[in-house]
Amino acid sequence: MHVSERLLQLYADTNAATRTNLQEVINRNLGDGKSLTVSFEELTGTTEPSLPTEEKSAADFAAWIKDGKKDATFLPYYVSLLEMYEDVLNKEATVLKSAPIDKTTVKEPTIADKVSVPVTEPTVVEAPKAKEKPPAPKQRYLPEAPVPSRAERAKYQRTIEPARPKRKSGKWIGALFLLALLIGGGYIGYPYVMDLLEPKQEAKVVEKTPKPDPEPVVQEPETNYVWLASKNVNLVSEPNGTTVTYIGDIGDRYEILKEQDEHVEVNLDGTTAWVPLDSVTTDWPTRDLTDSALLDWVNTNLNNDWLGETIPDFFAMNEAALTETIGAPYGRETDALNAYAFYNGGFFVIQQDKVHAIDWTNTQTTREVFSPLGEPVLETDDAVVYESETYSLRLFEGTNGQTRVRLTEK
User: Fold this and answer.
1) Angle at CA 350, nearest 5°, toward 302 and 373?
2) Against a cut of 0.85, is the pTM above it?
């Protein structure tokens, strides 16, 4: 670790009072000037050869502290002492305690002391010494009562007999056992006695309210669908009927209501219609085609100049918004399910006042151009269908070589 990093770590581990005390000890040791190596050895009792040998004074150290410790001369010296601050401060405290304190005070001579005046010495009269009394002799210890002789003590010992052991009485043991038996029997039999003494209460019969049966969960029937498997399929008003309610296209999906006479009844936006079973399929596989890949193909291979907006924006428009965005159509048609707005280059299929599909007419686009999209969901002699998660892209081939492409929001 670099010495500056060590200093930062030591500042985090020590408080300001400790650092201040250490700096005061260093100032006293350096004094007017001293080699940093010698100063470190005096403060710690150990040597550090890596420290600089140049002399520094306490004033230099104080200036270094005040300057923000920028000079590198003091840095390793100070960091090494800070790492051993406990030893340094303890040693300094020991030195201060062991130093002798000079309590002798020198009194300055007064003016009277400086002038020599002859003084007559007084006559000393010695008092007669009193005669010393001889020390009193020590008195021997005399017991307050006479101590009996050994023969008398032996006589007392012979007359002392050991105490006879007390006989254990079996009566007390039997009485205690009987008392314990009575107490235990009373403790055990007390609840039964109280049960006999207390009047019995008639047990109340609590009738349990029967829990209502859980309501049966109504399972909605699974919705089954069919897809039109060919181009221009007639949806008629009744099985084997001739009245055409709607003409569907390949890839259109309808909800199945029931089957009858080789026909299937489908929900046509609130109206029922019948489709021959040989014109529908229930097998509709999914593909790994993404929305972005499908829209990239549309932007690259179809003429979108007549649209003027990004294609996904149209599927959020109603007929009024469509007219406001690209103008009024030059023609408009309706059938039992949809409205059709015609423009130069194609038309829009509007279902329930919302753009449902965009058709590009007279495109000259062949099915080979669709090959980058991968495997189609359905393919016939005159049509092909590709689908992503959100969109269905279909190609319709005409007898005169003209083709039509439809993009539908599923």
Assistant:
1) 30
2) no
